[in-house]
Specification:
The complex is a heterodimer of chains A (112) and B (114). With 112 residues, chain A is mainly β. Chain A is built from no helices and 11 strands. By secondary structure, chain B is an all-beta fold. Classes of the chains: A mainly beta (112), B mainly beta (114).
């Protein structure tokens, strides 16, 4: 059973600061890693994916992947109040059905 | 382009009633999924389908049934509603090719069983 862990509690960051979110996974065969943002009462929306070790940057977001240590992280630079949401880590294992295993999510609150 | 459309958006059921949650997508995606999300939790996979006529169980299939007669539609059936099925249900779809293809989500159905 694939497991995806997001253990941090709610994260409060001042506006303009960096928010850092971490995610660990148990299946070493996992291929792709996704970060979804979910506003309260809304559906998840994709913000980034990564599948190679190292960093991937997209605007104010940077995803970092370390397959040897089995973790993936998300950095949000210059945090804005609109970044206040729950961030879900999702991991795709081996196999061709594109199944994702989701973590419980990390709530981020950006304080103006 | 509507993407993934779910109906209804809200529903209250009595214990023991049955209902079907509808999901349709217009992106010609082969893969479709049903998730449930309980408060403060991540998404749990109920059932998924890799194409018309093919369905398979996910992590939490008990109490649910699905069918996939067309590429576009993937309804989820609750036969005997129980309070434990109170949740938000999301339908998602993705293309078949490419290991980094994301899943696209509908707006969800909020279901309460009383």
């Amino acid at each position: 059973q694939k497991e995806v862990e997001q253990n941090s509690g709610p994260l409060s960051v001042p506006e303009g600061a960096i928010a850092s979110l971490n995610c660990t996974y148990s299946d070493r065969g996992s291929q792709s890693f996704f970060w979804y943002r979910q506003y309260s009462g809304k559906s998840p929306e994709l913000i980034m994916f990564i599948y190679s070790n190292g960093d991937k940057e997209d605007g104010r977001f940077t995803a970092q992947l370390n397959k040897a240590s089995q973790y993936v992280s998300l950095l949000i630079r210059d945090s804005q109040p609109s970044d206040s949401a729950t961030y879900l880590c999702a991991v795709k294992g081996p196999g061709g059905n594109n199944r994702l295993a989701f973590g419980k999510g990390n709530q981020v609150v950006v304080i103006p | 382009n509507a993407g993934v459309t779910q109906t209804p958006k809200f529903r209250i059921l009595k214990i023991g009633q049955s209902m079907t949650l509808q999901c349709t997508q217009d992106m010609n995606h082969n893969y479709m999924y049903w998730y449930r999300q309980d408060p403060g939790m991540g998404l749990k996979l109920i059932y998924y389908s890799v194409g018309a006529g093919i369905t398979d169980k996910g992590e939490v299939p008990n109490g649910y049934n699905v069918s996939r007669s067309t590429t576009e539609d993937f309804p989820l059936r609750l036969e005997l509603a129980a309070p434990s099925q109170t949740s938000v249900y999301f339908c998602a779809s993705s293309v078949r090719t490419g290991f980094n293809q994301p899943q696209h989500f509908g707006d969800g159905t909020r279901l309460s069983i009383l």
